[in-house]
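INFO worker-7 received task bundle
INFO bundle size: 2
INFO processing item 0
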Amino acid sequence: MKTLLGNSLSDTPNIAPCKSREDNPDEILPEKFDWREKYPECVQNVTNQGNCSSTYATIATSTVADRICQQVKKPVQLSAQEVISCDKGNYGCEGGYATRALNWGKRKGFVPEACYPYTATKGQCDVEDHLESNECRRNSIFYKVIDYCLAQDEGDLEEWPRGRSDGRLH
């Protein structure tokens, strides 16, 4: 398992690494890239997590929302709260793994924030009942993750949120 700053990037060692410059030497990467300049319509507000350690869920949903906005040129907010309340593979407001949240996105998809607003609490969620009763899910309004990769070393990341010694993010 790859670690950075003493914290695991993932609890799953079998996630494909991101392609590096060495994998594609003809691709020219810029020396500097500012998302805010390139995609100003996609810049999201910072989520006030309240008293809920939900970085893992906000990282996953924000990353997917960024990629959607990058393609369609319209901002979308995805529900971190649904992941906090319904994803049994993580620990609700006690933290969790971004990779597990992304796996929820692969299996179930992420609904828009308006469909499951942020409350900064671990709500009660019977997953099967929720998947059938949530209006957005009934109307197929959700975004599925097709695939993702993990950065493999410090050179792939400029900053990474600090996590816990067990790899879970706050």
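INFO item 0 finished
INFO processing item 1
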Amino acid sequence: MSCNPSWPFEANIIATDEYMQPRQTHSQDNRIATLKQTISTLQKLLSVSRRLNSTLEMRPLLQQIVESAAELTDADGASILLMEDSDTLRFAAASGPESATLQNTEVPLDRSLAGWVAKHGLVTQQIRRVVQSIVTD
């Protein structure tokens, strides 16, 4: 191709097929794929937000949360455990292949990873801060 002063953009076009489409670089392909993934995630978050705002009852809300969490993270399942008493957690909501088995199952604090986390408060402290900030806003 020659550069014609009447068409200054001709030199920037690289023909790749008979339709004269500009060729995308590998980095452009990666960027487009990343943008498509971001759009898909944002659409899922919007859908989750709508579903979560549709109920105020605790059990259905917890169930929607675990289903949404599994969907957003492409996990096979998710669960929420609540402190039953000072030495027991209980599955309050679960999704995935074993969800029916897990419903209302007790988990001892002293013999489980979830119990260790609950005892030491590493995650619960962060959750408490988030909840407090929501409540005060």
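INFO item 1 finished
INFO post-check item 1: The chain has five helices and three strands.
INFO post-check item 1: The CA atoms of residues 107 and 113 lie 10 Å apart.
INFO worker-7 idle
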